[in-house]
Design the sequence.
């Protein structure tokens, strides 16, 4: 069984995840499969956050704590990065160098009022139809 030492670097986490995948027989899963699994974990994180924020969740839903779901997401991010030989620390530093050159503006609360919307209000499909009329696509 692979062991992760105290205070690992991102590279050590990536190595550990690769070893875990090999041990558990997941190393042959495609990047597409890992991305789909990552999406499922993100959904579970959203459910855990909803529960933590006091919003309704399906009583039959199965999901862990916020910290457990974040750990699952991190594992999948490492697994996807490994498949592309991406050094996550270098990628993070490169992206932050780009972000430092950007200007950030205040957007306010993007979700203000969202949680108070009742189920009787129009559906997102109704709203989409009003704001984005369907155009016929021809080839």
Sequence:
């Amino acid at each position: 069984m692979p062991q992760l030492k105290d205070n690992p670097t991102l590279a050590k986490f990536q190595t550990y995840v690769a070893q875990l995948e090999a041990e558990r027989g997941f190393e042959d899963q495609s990047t597409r499969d890992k991305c789909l699994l990552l999406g499922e974990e993100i959904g579970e994180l959203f459910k855990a956050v909803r529960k933590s924020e006091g919003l309704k969740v399906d009583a039959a839903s199965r999901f862990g704590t916020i910290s457990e779901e974040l750990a699952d997401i991190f594992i999948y991010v490492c697994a996807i990065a490994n498949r592309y030989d991406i050094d996550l620390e270098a990628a993070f530093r490169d992206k932050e160098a780009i972000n430092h050159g950007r200007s950030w503006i205040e957007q306010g609360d993007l979700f203000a009022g969202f949680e108070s919307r009742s189920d009787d209000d129009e559906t997102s499909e109704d709203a989409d139809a009003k704001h984005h009329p369907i155009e016929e696509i021809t080839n």
Remarks:
- The CA atoms of residues 93 and 130 lie 42 Å apart.
